[in-house]
Amino acid sequence: MSKTVEFYFDLGSPATYLAYTQLPKICERTGSQLTYIPILLGGVFKATGNASPATVPAKGRYMFQDLDRYARRYGVPLKFNPHFPINTLMLMRAVTGIQLRHPERFAAFIDCLFKALWVDGRSLDEPATVAAVLTENGFDPNEVLALTTDEQVKAALKDNTEKAVQRGVFGAPSMFIDNQLFFGQDRLDFVLEALS
């Protein structure tokens, strides 16, 4: 019986970006399913009293050096976003909305946003930049914006975030296999082990 990885993610986390580049390969290799669950990392931090490692200057400097090491190991591009940290509320509502209303476009949607943030270093805090990125990738910015104000979409993101905290999530990326939590892109070897 194939296992499932429940991947709790927020676009604003560079560690989550790295996990996102590796999890599909891991799941393909092990014949496992990958389920994407968008959450609001700011909401998780608020509920758990956690904070970004970047709020501690020495830890933040180390974190980005370490993430760069992992990007080289994985053979994927990673650029420190000069606009970090990014307020992802609207982005994660958009992600949730696309997942709910246009699941066939979900992969392409998160691909273009992860790339804009962690490869191209674009400022997705700015509505004009978000609109440009969406247009460049074949999405209608007005349609996506409408999703971010949809009450069902807003409630779904809030619900995902609350349920994540109830399950023990305190940051991103967080992955569950059979109700066992694995936190951080540097724990993917344990994810692979649990799936094998």
TrEMBL record:
Keywords: Isomerase, Transferase. Residues 4-195 form the DSBA-like thioredoxin domain. The keyword Flavoprotein does not apply. Gene3D superfamilies: Glutaredoxin. The keyword Lyase does not apply. One of its GO terms (molecular function) is glutathione peroxidase activity. Its EC number is 5.99.1.4. Pfam families: DSBA. InterPro entries: DSBA-like_thioredoxin_dom (IPR001853), GST_Kappa/NadH (IPR051924), HCCAis_GSTk (IPR014440), NahD-like (IPR044087), Thioredoxin-like_sf (IPR036249). GO terms for cellular component: cytoplasm. It comes from the Bacteria. The active site is at S13 (nucleophile). GO terms for biological process: glutathione metabolic process; naphthalene catabolic process. It catalyses: RX + glutathione = an S-substituted glutathione + a halide anion + H(+); 2-hydroxychromene-2-carboxylate = (3E)-4-(2-hydroxyphenyl)-2-oxobut-3-enoate. Belongs to the GST superfamily. NadH family. This is 2-hydroxychromene-2-carboxylate isomerase. It comes from Pseudomonas moorei.
